[in-house]
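ugh ok so i messed up the first submission bc i forgot one of the chains. this is the corrected input, ALL of the components this time, i swear. 227 residues overall. if the numbers dont match what u have on ur side tell me asap before i send this to the collaborators (the ones from the other lab, u know who)
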Amino acid sequence: EVQLVESGGGLVKPGGSLRLSCVASGFTFSDYSVNWVRQAPGKGLEWVSSISSRSTYIYYADSVKGRFTISRDNAKNSLYLQMNSLRAEDTAVFYCGRAGSTSLNYIDVWGKGTTVTVSS
Amino acid sequence: DIQMTQSPSSLSASVGDRVTITCRASQDISNNLAWFQQKPGKAPKSLIYAASSLQSGVPSKFSGSGSGTDFTLTINNLQPEDFATYYCQQYNSYPRTFGQGTKVEIK
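and heres the new structure output, hopefully the right one now
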């Protein structure tokens, strides 16, 4: 079964850091780009970051650029999101999503999400 | 950045109805558009890619159309399990952008 499982969410103070992980199974992780997408409470979906299959291409939303770093370890079938200088407005459920290997790739599989709460 | 605008923001419909949701891009995105369904407290589910291609396992009651800047998602024979929020997303360029969502509620 194709599956993505996120972890690492929690409560953190403003200015703090957190590292999210997403472990993939049921497919060849190294063949796919992967994304982080978040959803603030009661709000819509917001794309956060994407990384290509070999980490060659990395993209960020302006709202997180310079604070968040996406990375992956294909040997461990894992995706990461290092989040620094966290703000209250980063409070959200963070989802990882599998996308295709070409530049015009779309998300076809989603994880269940992990919740990040930034509050003092 | 490409802005994606969905309409309506919400709609009320009855079981058995056909509903249509519109998504408009601020510039030409060819057919690089996906649709997602999300139920409360759950992760999004992928429905359609390339504007009109159904993801594997998605029932044919869902259909998509459009190209360029104007797209539609149609749901035929609405059933209780279809009441959810629907999002479009362009993947023509970065940053990827979503529409604000359309909530389909029971009348």
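quick check: The radius of gyration of chain B is 13 Å. that seems consistent at least. Chain B has a mean pLDDT of 97.
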